Amino acid sequence: MLTKETKLSSRRLSLRTKAPFEPFPRAAERASWEGLSESVRRLWITAGEQHLQQDWPSLPATLYMDYVRTGIRDHYQNPGFMRRQMLLRLVMAECMEYKGRFLDDIVNGVWAICEESTWCWPAHLNNLDTHRLEELPDLDHPIIDLGAGETASLIVWTCYLLQEALERHSPNLAKRMLRELRVRILEPYDREDRFWWMSFDEHELINNWNPWCNSNVLAVILIAEQDMARKERMLEKLLRSLDRFIGSYQKDGGCDEGPAYWGHAAGALFNALQLLCAVSAHYQELYQDEKIRNMARYVMNMYIGEGQFISFADSSAKLTVKAEVIYQFAKALKDEELMSFGRQMYLRQGGYEHWNDEDFLSNLQVILGETFQVEELWRNSGKEDAEKQQSILLPMDVWMESVEVMVARDTKEGNGFCLAAKGGHNDESHNHNDIGSFIAYLNAEPVLIDAGVGVYTFKTFSAERYSIWTMQSAYHQTPTINGCMQAAGKNYRAQSVHYEADGVISRLAMNLSGAYPEEAGVMSWERSVQLARGVDGQEGCSEVLISDQVEFKKETQDIVLHWMSASAPVMEADQWVISTSKGSKVAMQYDTELWDVEIEPITLTDKKLMGVWGSTIYRTNMRMKKAVLCGGWQFTLKCL
């Protein structure tokens, strides 16, 4: 798409590599910075003042080695993140004030970060030849990962914004910054094709790493690279790499990584497109492409309400999204619905205050884009406007065939049921073994949930991934058959997938048997998940129906159905009942002659899961009472 894969001519879209690249005002251009609202300027100056004369966190070698020894990421990453957060705030404060008050601390921060032996996070320090995880970096072979890209972006934008002030204050500092960017980013990017996230190996996974790394590298190329021949060569390479990412999506824009990764997948692609548009206006034509538009809308399609999202894959049910990126993306697309969604999410998340607690992963490019291009969001979203929040209007029916995800809502305003179900396969990016699973919310309150993912550790992306309970099918709305959970791998997939929606019924049907190993002994497990709106002709009276038709190789009673909930279910009049925090009740009706019910509390100890669900969630296990060879059953969720 960016080179030759569409009707857009690569010649027309070539970059003017010698053109001045000035997407944002530099700090020395005082009219632009002083024209910002006093509230925005004061917020950043106050944030920077917190770090005046503050000691920079220590990052000894043994702390880096700790990840291989313990499998815990945070021991090194947290102080590393704090260094970058401190520098970001100091840089923004100096840009706002521009009196030199923050420069000494900025110099200390830049120097400390430049002194780090690597900018690669310990969890990503793989040897390119052996793929062995190393305890300490090889300085002769720098690794470009997410951490290196983010750090490079922070350093290059610091140099861009404050170059004049820093050269007056410490003439050799900018030279040191450019040296580190050359050695750690530009030279290895030019030299290596083997970074897996470049996606040049057709057998390699393509995911958010591609645009996340490439968008940061692009900023470094455009700002720091002075050799025109190498600059053109790297830009051509980067466009080919980004094309691989865009090509991995289908026209519906479905993302198999879940909404938590939207900001680093489609959102990072937008950041790259904006940089490209700043160099060549021809790239604006990409915003007319239907695929790009649907990639942007994915995050809105997966929204439930009250800050909650459909938490398939390594996502979370509660997210703070990059609302300003959503808004800017929508503005570029001229998509009024998505602009409204971004505006409302921005308001509900606290407006510009959101940046006060954001870590460095939302880099300066994003912050600057918000500061200068969508400051109207800040001006129009003060606390006095809290009562003026508009309803977020969402599509009632969404079907993303590429990832086999259905979303069905009772209303555009989010009242009533929200049902999401998925097919797919068990080798998706950030995969959970969850074919045929679904979630249901009523009035944005959880009824049946996907627990999501806990804090990343060594296990998360290792051969032990599926020893983590949140990744297992037995902790999703899926069956365990003859003691077998679903298996991992691309060959384990939904079959005979069929979707239909007519405005009243929204239904996803599939055969789950292909998700299970041979020893499960299942010949067919046809599952249908549907939202039926206006049951019995009554508006707002909807039902969720789950129907299974099964056939086994031999008669069995060893069948367990699992239902995950955030609230403790109770049994009332032979119905499984959930009460929401707002006082609504949802009952599950089922054949009591077929199923024994066991309600199992699950005590949470992971801080990320606890931040979403509290200390406990619940798994209801329904066990088959009698042996069957074939047959069927139905479950109905309805309001009481």
Task: Describe, in plain words, how this protein is organized in 3D.
With 640 residues, the protein is an alpha+beta fold. It folds into two domains: 359 residues, Glycosyltransferase, CATH 1.50.10; 243 residues, Beta-galactosidase, Chain A, domain 5 (Distorted Sandwich), CATH 2.70.98.70. It contains 16 helices and 21 strands. Helix 5 crosses helix 6 and helix 6 runs parallel beside helix 8. The protein starts with 29 loop residues before the first helix and ends with a strand. 45% of the residues are buried. It is found in: Cell envelope. This is Heparinase.
Which features would summarize this protein structure in a list?
21 strands; 2 domains; Beta-galactosidase, Chain A, domain 5; five-stranded antiparallel β-sheet; Glycosyltransferase; alpha+beta; 640 residues; eight-stranded antiparallel β-sheet
Strand content: 15-25%
Distance between the termini: 51 Å
So, CATH architecture of the largest domain? Alpha/alpha barrel
Q: For the largest sheet, list the strands in their spatial order.
A: 11-12-13-14-21-18-17-16
Number of domains: 2
Give me the Rg, rounded: 26 Å
The coarse overall form would be: globular
User: Helical content, roughly?
Assistant: 25-40%
